[in-house]
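This section describes the prediction task in plain terms. A model, or a person checking by hand, is given the sequence of a single protein chain and must write out its three-dimensional structure as a string of tokens. No templates, partner chains or ligands are provided. The sample shown here is typical of the held-out split.
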Amino acid sequence: MDKKSVEEMEAQLETIDNAKAELSDEELDSIDFTRYVEVATVLEQLLYGVQEASNQGESIRLSTSTFASNEKEVNDVTSLVDALADSTIDVVKLVGDIDIGGSLEIKRTVTLDLNGYVLKMTTNNSAVKIFNGGNLTLIDSNPNTSHFFDTSNNLWQLSSSGFQVLGGIITNSGQASVGSGLNIENGGSFTMNGGNIVGCKSSNSAYGGVYNEGTFIFNAGSIQGYAGGLYNKGTVNGNGGLITNYVNNEGSINVDTGANGTTFTDAVTNSGGIAGIFNGLVTNNNGNINGGTFSGQVNNNEGNINNGIFNNKVVNTAGKINGGTFKNVVDNKLLIKDNEWGGTFKVKCFIYNGTFTETSKVRVEFCYIYNGTFEGKVVFENVQIPDSGLLSWILGGVFTETSELTFLTDDIYLHLANAKFDGIVENCSFAFLFAHEMFVKFEGSKVATDSGSSEPVFGETSTVYLNAGRIVGGYILRKGN
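The expected answer:
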């Protein structure tokens, strides 16, 4: 945005401020200033940018006083509670540390500026509770203020030394049943543009420092402390910021277009939908992984991997891989489940698409491969014999010249249809490959046996079609041979 556009926006906001000054309290109460606050916030970001990242993630530097005519400075609990309830006040700004014993109730649209200070809950209640219709924006206009926490036990406490956190703080020396930092009800909305929620451990550790059933827009700041992460049953727009402790997601965690995404450094359990930057273990239980970067292991338990970059091991147990880029081991495992008659049944996994790079190793126990690009190793092991009814299939895909298709057990039965192999096919001992209906192309493939590489029976450049035949010990036996 150019200078002229910024000046025009400033002039429009000033005009609105002048008009507000002429309105009565009743008239102000009847007007929704949400868009006004949003525009002012965006303009502040354009003018002052984003603070350099520190140990608590990015913090958007907002002075707010430039644009908000109705700002109230508070330094005690009474003035804080009164200001948050006063609909004529747009921004409540801390000018001192404040201890509270009861939850701050948000039932309207308001901005809270921590201003580098500490807001501390001292009882077993949520520090902030956002009700249906409430809309809280958290900012921190003094993000370089230093605070310290004693992290020697499971409930982090403010201290004169220890772990350093920069910027304003919401903390809790007690333990609420859910959301010791914030509790966002269905229909409530919370936007976090700065500040830190630290040491907010709930009595039920799974329910986190922030408990959300509404809408949580996370742009900057941090959520830190043992077992004080996020429990989400609503919608999270995880555009930035940092969460360093456990996350349980039953709703959706999305990333807005153009945003970097929230960084999660601890374990995440997902049964909803997730995207972001994940550095710890991710367990996907019947959920959807929709994008992001995954540097820790991913356990996909009957879930869907739809997109993302996976730098570490993926264990795909009766799950579906629909897309993504995989750079490490991908274990595809069957799942044995109990049925209603007292017996068991086996559930296979699927690969519908994806790119498996040269550094990848896809291990198959019982899997259908429908499509994908395979540049690394693909290993079939422990594949069941036909009598069990558990045949693995390759129904499509491209196996590039850098790929290696290997069979590790004595008797492997594999159905093939419409796949293309440009790499090495290794048949250790005795393997059956059945091609059904559609053709399978082996272009320039070399076949290796358990006794060493044989002559390239498919030819370096020739195309061989295997139709309803099999490869035995590295040799083609065509139909009729």
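For orientation: Confidence is low (pLDDT under 50) at residues 48-56, 58-68, 435-439, 449-481.
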